[in-house]
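Hi all, posting the design record for the shared folder.

TITLE: backbone redesign
STEP: 1 of 1
STRUCTURE INPUT:
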């Protein structure tokens, strides 16, 4: 298969390399399924802060606390509460005109943990689409998850497409670092 019209690469070899890279990254704990602060802060403290902020629900602080609460539930493996909190936060984000990208990521993580790969794929794709081009690590995370889930579902061509997208983004990022 030709990649960008340059060279012929064995499809299975490239897929194996991409998946191996993704598995190594996960093994090295580069996977950021939760916010770094979410597992450090107890749920009751986040809820207490939300009560204080309820008078001003349009603030960034309120939205941030809602996202933290959903992530804290996920970190404690309270998946039903994480889903419920995420759905409430999405409704809030629409009303407050906030980007739900962090909640899309969390919903992808929750559904992935529940082995509901179609739902996980839907939310990871929405997460990826909501990211801007400067969010290198987040884009790579989304592409990694999309590639792994498509592989698990047997959609190898889609998995390969996401791997190739990740390689292109990584190459662009390396080029920018070398120019600085």
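Okay, here is what came back for every position:
SEQUENCE:
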């Amino acid at each position: 298969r030709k990649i960008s019209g340059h060279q012929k690469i064995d499809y299975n070899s490239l897929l194996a390399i991409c998946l191996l890279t993704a598995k190594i990254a996960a093994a090295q704990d580069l996977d950021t399924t939760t916010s770094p602060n979410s597992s450090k802060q107890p749920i009751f403290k986040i809820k207490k802060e939300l009560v204080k902020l309820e008078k001003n629900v349009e603030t960034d602080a309120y939205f941030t606390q809602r996202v933290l609460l959903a992530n804290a539930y996920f970190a404690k493996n309270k998946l039903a509460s994480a889903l419920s909190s995420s759905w409430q936060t999405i409704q809030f984000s629409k009303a407050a005109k906030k980007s739900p990208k962090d909640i899309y990521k969390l919903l992808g993580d929750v559904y992935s943990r529940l082995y509901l790969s179609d739902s996980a794929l839907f939310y990871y794709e929405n997460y990826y689409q909501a990211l801007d081009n400067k969010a290198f690590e987040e884009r790579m995370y989304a592409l990694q998850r999309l590639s792994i889930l498509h592989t698990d579902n047997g959609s190898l061509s889609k998995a390969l497409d996401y791997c190739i997208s990740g390689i292109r983004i990584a190459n662009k990022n390396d080029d920018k670092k070398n120019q600085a």
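COMMENT: The helical segments are 11-27, 43-53, 60-75, 79-96, 101-113, 117-130, 136-153, 156-179.
Let me know if anyone wants the other runs.
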